[in-house]
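Suppose a colleague, Dr. K., hands you the sequence of a protein chain of 210 amino acids and asks what its three-dimensional shape might be. Before reaching for any lab equipment, you can write down a predicted structure in token form. Begin with the sequence itself:
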Amino acid sequence: MSEYQYDDISKFWESEKQDEALGDLEDLQLSKMIECLSNIRLRFAETHANEDIQAEIYEQEAINLEFMLRDLLILRRNKILQAAVMQEEPSGDMTISEEEFYNRVFRAFSGHDEFVENTITGSPSATVKLSNSDTSATEEATDDDDTRQLDYVMVRFLQPIEEAFVGMDEQIYGPFDKEDVAMIPIHNAKVWLRNGTVSRIVPEERKEGE
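The predicted structure, expressed as tokens, is then:
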């Protein structure tokens, strides 16, 4: 993926503002945008004292980029939140962090919808019939299921990983060749998604749903 420049980020931000639907954003894209901001901050810091005009340009560009990136992520957060409230799948690709946010909110509203329906119909929820110990066990099992769902991601390796590594789940993964596909812990995947070592694979059922 090519480097992002100031104008590229501005166009991306404008597109997200104008479109009601969530646009596509991958971890690597966001990483390139942040890298652009970091580069401009560095140029500003390295500007000589007698280069007032150039320093002002870099300073203003950094301020503008900070605003655009912050607003971009807030715009996307609000669209993702709206989709979760409506119990719908967001239209665009999300970063790992955005998808974690969506899943948590989606489950919260799904649980509350069930509570509302049970209240209206007078049906006691399953947890009311359970003893305290059974309830705790049920909640722990549900939490474990949610954790498994959120903590792993399927990726394709764009660069080889020559040595095996220990994942956040303390399991050993790899080595991997280029084009290998694997399910790995999200915490390990995040860094590689941002630096282009791997690309994310979206499950077929989600693609068909879109």
